[in-house]
Design brief:
Length: 280
Amino acid sequence: MPLLLAACGGAEPGPQARPALWLVEDSDTRIYILGTMHALPQGTDWSGGEVAKAIDAADELVMELSPAELAAAGGVFQQLAPRESPLAIESRLQGKALVGYRTIEKSGRSFSAEGLDDWAVMVLMGQRIAQNAGLSPTDGVEAGLTARFEAAKKPIGGLETARAQLMLFETLDPAAQRTLLTRAAEEADTAVKDVGALTAAWGRGDVAALEKVVNEDIDSVPAARKAIITDRNRHWSAWTKRRMEQPGTVLMAVGAGHLVSTDGMPAMLEAEGLKVKRVQ
């Protein structure tokens, strides 16, 4: 989970990253589905090859969050993150997990975790890990795509709201939140290296490596996988199927972790009988 939150992104992905890209099409509709990293090292070039063709061909861009919702996400986080009653981090984490948390916390400004829910502490840890790995959202795929489509005056939409996205974490049961937080803290000593490996795998379009990381990262908490991965993939796949009823070309850009495994979007769409092929 910390890996998904950090980049869901260091080793150098190389000057010519080639992330995985799929195409769903019928006689009059094409929907390109690009696996993204929300944060990347400065200067990463991911928009060549078939991705460049998809950007040029698309009439519209659809991301997890529209630009307006992404801009609102910080405020929504501040509304949802506080606990009803403060709880010291020493009462939540022990041993290796507490040491790992302190290591991440001391690498920058304090999180003031006592007043935050477990899921919110985990989100902030993921952001700190991304920063320590040299990754930035301003260099991520979504930021780059937004700039390109705004410059071309092409519409940009979103699949969900910032509140709905963060409520997926807020509504996880306390035991699941604590397990995720503990796991993230226990892996702190290798987190930057692991995020780098994930970034490199994304840059190679290595779906098998991405699947391994995603499964290891979230399978320890089945309820979290269902809420954060499977149910959202099902919702987005249903959106894609409905959109196929309208002509045109769409570029859909969602976190790379949503496009792998048997509950990834490509597998779900194929199970629904749609024609899906990987084009990069």
